[in-house]
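Dear colleagues,

As part of the handover before I leave the project, I'm documenting each prediction I ran so the next person doesn't have to rerun anything. This entry is a single chain, and its sequence is reproduced below.
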Amino acid sequence: MSQDNNSGSAQPNQRIRRVLLKLSGEALGGSGGGLDQDVLRTLTNELREVYELGLQIGIVVGGGNIFRGLAGAANGMDRARADYMGMLATVINAMALQDSFESAGIHTRVMTALEIVEVAEPYVQRKAIAHLEKGKVVIFGAGTGSPYFSTDTAAALRAVEIHADCLMKATKVDGIYDKDPVKNSDAVRYTQVTYDQCLSQRLGVMDSTAFSLCRENGMPIRVFSMGTSGNLRRACLGEDVGTVVVP
């Protein structure tokens, strides 16, 4: 507890000035899916702590709490059509995040890979960077804009495009383990792991396309749990939270 009390005077790690946060859609939903307003408020409070540090923040959000393209395809839908439906679900989540953030005084922009100009700006790399430099949180919706790519891959792509210092992936577990910690009580958490280890050992926190994109562009990944209050702030301060993936 003393560490939490002292962290208010800490300054951000100078190497981390711009981050890309990946949030799953499931993280925003209640037990029955959809959107949980209590979860949104908690997340907003966590993000505001980072926002007030002056860090530039981009967010890629999934849509699994509303519709998941892979699940639709597994039930007989055309895969591309199902994926587009999933992209639209991410836009709903992005708009919900924007509403919650702006209610708390956090200036935001929603940018989408699919053009829905009535509700969001079309994604343009230079405009996104300009918004970040002006102190706005930029929420990226609609994934990559193409079917067959996950929102993890979208997060890796946007992190590289906006020149983020780190890709932060918030999950339900506190890092990357050598095996599923839910099913294996003897699972060991890595504090640091390489891209090649993630790929060769199939450590399934992100898909292989996302890992490969980060590896090819030297983009560090930090995987941590949003279930612990203050973890996002500590991760952005460069503290030893979760697991970091490095070359």
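Confidence is low (pLDDT under 50) at residues 1-14. The longest strand covers residues 18-23.

All the best with the project,
I.
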